[in-house]
Design a protein that fits this description.
The complex is a heterodimer.
Chain A lengths: L23 H20 L4 H27 L1 H9 L8 H21 L1 H15 L5 H22 L7 H13 L2
Helix pairs in contact in A: 1-2, 2-3, 4-5, 4-7, 5-6
Chain B lengths: L1 H10 L2 H19 L5 H12 L4 H26 L10 H10 L3 H25 L1 H8 L4 H18 L4 H16 L1 E2 L6 E2 L5 H4 L4 H20 L13 H7 L4 H15 L5 H15 L13 H16 L1 H7 L5 H12 L6 H6 L1 H30 L6 H18 L4 H19 L4 H24 L6 H4 L1 H30 L1
Antiparallel strand pairs in B: 1-2
Helix pairs in contact in B: 1-19, 2-3, 2-4, 2-19, 3-4, 3-17, 4-5, 4-6, 4-15, 4-17, 4-19, 5-6, 5-15, 6-12, 6-13, 6-15, 6-19, 8-9, 8-14, 8-22, 8-24, 9-22, 11-20, 11-21, 13-14, 13-15, 14-15, 20-21
Classes of the chains: A mainly alpha, B mainly alpha.
Chain lengths: 178, 495
């Protein structure tokens, strides 16, 4: 057999898998890298002793982000282990948005109408949106929850829960001005 | 013997018994409810203690604190929201157990472990105060920094998933802690001239958001109830009986809690996480942690209950509070004309022995109260999610609000919750972030102080034998975590 006609054995070429950079954990690492870079840049205005620890931490963070992203792109086994770490979430996108939107709406409600009213409405509306039947039962539970929280936090422990813009207006106009 | 001859008769008066029972009832509920804490309850009742006898005042405050540590794990286990920050680690295995319908068993293990830790911590306080103190007073900034590195190393080495992700969460936790006024020089950092940010991003809204809001999102997506089976299996007493099997883990937790509790600045929260991490690291089946392993509930609960009792060692012997709660006890002593130190022990035997005896009684009373209330609490896990989710949301946001009573803390909690959700989805371990948030400031201050003591160099880290040992241990832990699986694979191939 002519050695020159022999084709060389195929060498295993490890090709980079750039699609991994769109994976959730890679996106987190990219965001962290941006954060660490910002910490270094903003930290330059502070005295040396004040910026020492943030700089050390951020440089280390940038290095680890680079290592993580490079390993994910170049090593399929590493990328697979990464996927195994992920926590699955059941359910649909609608429930995700309900859970994400409810706390800010509730917080805005506390700011505008006060803790007690916002809590009552939250206990009335959120179970209904999530599919719990019986408006009378929901109203009873809502009242009991508001009462219990008031007794524990306001009466027993004396924590000032916010009255909200509406509550402050009512107190100022009808109570304090008398 | 003085505890039996002097202490026990001293506590069995009407006032002192009432103080124990009332303190335990208040403490248990304060610890169980997110938004309250044992410290809050102690601070509220502090003015009432001024008119009491010194022993009664100390008994009331310590009973509240003891019971709060018992109760703190209840909401951790049932809803993944820690009632006390020092009970956060119990959620890592307690909540998965609740999801498997074993809430009663988890709470039983937690109660038994808390009792073991509380009584063990009290025994160590009484018998080993002097030797522990003789070691602790030699600790300086170098040792504190080394301990901080050890803590985050252990947590990273045992965190689930890739170690790099664990280290990145540590660094993120440090970064969050940079916001605010620099602890050493007093320069505002990363505050963008915002008055709120100058006080720093508070630990409480971040932790309640990360645990509570992120869990709210998962819970609402999941539906049904916390218990995946929709029913409860096993009882409190099954959990108490099974905890006897975990005696070695509980002893490790006791050692961690007792030693770290007597060190000012470390605190019950860091102790809680460290005990969990050490238990996982030294377990024969570390891969089962985080999936409902009762050892993951037992170890941190023993540690945090032991910690609160040994925290009295530096407080009563040197007047140095190990934490906020022991600081309140020093205030009570001062108000009643007493001074911490050797004289307190020699000239007030009734006070000291009565207090020590009360620690044992309060621990037992707290355990008994847990057995009464746990049946009610465990049923929360079979409530439908549409009812439980809004309650979880409300309690989490109230907890975030109640610390500084600032609306901005609500938004911090929500942001932390959404970020926590995506971090969990992407497989980044949150325990590392929380640990770094706790230890970050302590480590930074210690590092800068060590550099100042070394005249601008870091040579002290190589000159202090304790610090060298701890840092070498950290390197070994990382090396075994990285090389261990490779070596095991090589050996498996050869055989």
């Amino acid at each position: 057999m002519d050695p020159q006609s022999q084709t060389p054995p195929p060498t295993e070429v490890r090709t980079a898998n750039w699609a991994v950079l769109r994976h959730p954990s890679a996106v987190v690492a990219e965001c962290l890298a941006v954060l660490f870079a910002l910490v270094i840049v903003i930290g330059r205005q502070y005295p040396p002793d004040a910026r020492l620890f943030p700089t050390v931490v951020s440089v280390l963070g940038l290095f680890l982000c680079a290592v993580f992203l490079a390993a994910s792109v170049l090593n399929p086994t590493y990328a697979r282990k990464n996927i195994d770490d992920m926590e699955e979430a059941a359910g649909d996108i609608m429930h995700f948005w309900i859970a994400c939107v409810s706390p800010p709406l509730y917080s805005i409600g506390i700011y505008v109408i006060g803790f007690h009213a916002a809590t009552f409405i939250a206990m009335l509306v959120m179970p209904a949106v999530l599919g719990y039947p019986g408006w009378l039962r929901r109203a009873g539970i809502a009242f009991a929850v508001v009462l219990a929280l008031h007794l524990v936090f306001v009466v027993a422990v004396d924590i000032d829960l916010p009255s909200g813009l509406l509550g402050n207006y009512v107190l100022t106009t009808f109570v304090y001005d008398k | 013997m003085d505890i039996i001859n002097i202490g026990i008769p001293a506590i069995f008066t009407v006032n002192n018994v009432l103080a124990i029972v009332l303190g335990c009832c208040i403490g248990l509920w304060a610890g169980a409810l997110p938004g309250l804490s044992g410290l809050t309850a102690q601070a509220m009742l502090l003015p009432l203690t001024f008119s009491m006898e010194p022993l009664t005042a100390l008994i009331l405050l310590t009973s509240i604190h003891t019971a709060a540590e018992f109760g703190g794990s209840i909401s951790s286990i049932l809803m993944n929201v820690p009632g006390e920050a020092s009970a956060a680690a119990a959620a890592y295995d307690g909540y998965p157990m609740a999801r498997q319908g074993k809430a009663g068993i988890a709470l039983g293990v937690s109660s038994a472990a808390s009792l073991f830790g509380a009584i063990g911590g009290a025994i160590i306080l009484i018998t080993a105060a002097k030797p522990i103190l003789s070691v602790v007073i030699t600790f300086g900034p170098v040792e504190y920094f080394a301990l901080g590195v050890f803590g985050i190393t252990i947590v990273s080495a045992v965190s689930s998933g890739l170690m790099v992700k664990g280290f990145l969460m540590i660094l993120l936790g440090f970064t969050i802690g940079f916001v605010g006024v620099d602890a050493v020089i007093g320069v505002p950092r990363y505050t963008f001239d915002n008055v709120y940010l100058q006080a720093g991003i508070s630990f409480v809204p971040v932790v309640t958001g990360i645990f509570g809001i992120s869990e709210l999102i998962f819970m609402v997506q999941r539906g049904k109830s916390v218990s995946e089976t929709g029913k409860l299996t096993g009882s409190l007493w099954d959990g108490v009986k099974s905890s006897i099997r975990y005696w070695s883990v509980m002893l490790k937790g006791l050692a961690v809690g007792s030693i770290l509790g007597s060190m000012p600045g470390i605190g019950t929260t860091a102790t809680n996480f460290l005990a969990y991490s050490i238990a996982q690291r030294t377990s024969r089946h570390p891969e089962t942690f985080g999936k409902g392993n009762p050892e993951g509930v037992a170890a941190p609960e023993v540690a945090n209950n032991a910690c609160i009792h040994t925290a009295m060692i530096p407080a009563f012997t040197m007047g140095i509070p190990a934490g906020a709660s022991s600081a309140l006890l020093i205030v009570v002593l001062t108000i009643h004309g007493l001074r911490p130190g050797q004289m307190l022990f020699t000239s007030n035997p009734v006070l000291i022995n009565g207090l020590f005896a009360a620690l044992f009684v309060a621990s037992i009373v707290s355990f008994l109260l847990m057995t009464v209330f746990i049946r009610i609490f465990a049923r929360l896990t079979i409530l439908p999610i549409p009812l439980l989710a809004p309650v979880l949301m409300i309690l989490t946001l109230v907890a975030a609000y109640s610390e500084k009573q600032s609306m901005l803390d609500l938004f911090i909690a929500m942001a932390a919750g959404v970020i926590g959700y995506f971090l969990r989805r992407a497989g980044f371990p949150l325990v590392n972030l929380v640990m770094a948030l706790i230890l970050g400031k302590l480590m930074e201050v210690a590092l800068v102080q060590a550099r100042m003591m070394g005249g601008g160099s870091y040579s002290l880290f190589l000159e202090r034998p304790g610090a060298v040992l701890v840092l070498v241990a950290c390197v070994l832990v990382i090396a075994t975590s990285i090389l261990g699986p490779q070596i095991r694979r090589l050996l498996a191939k050869r055989t």
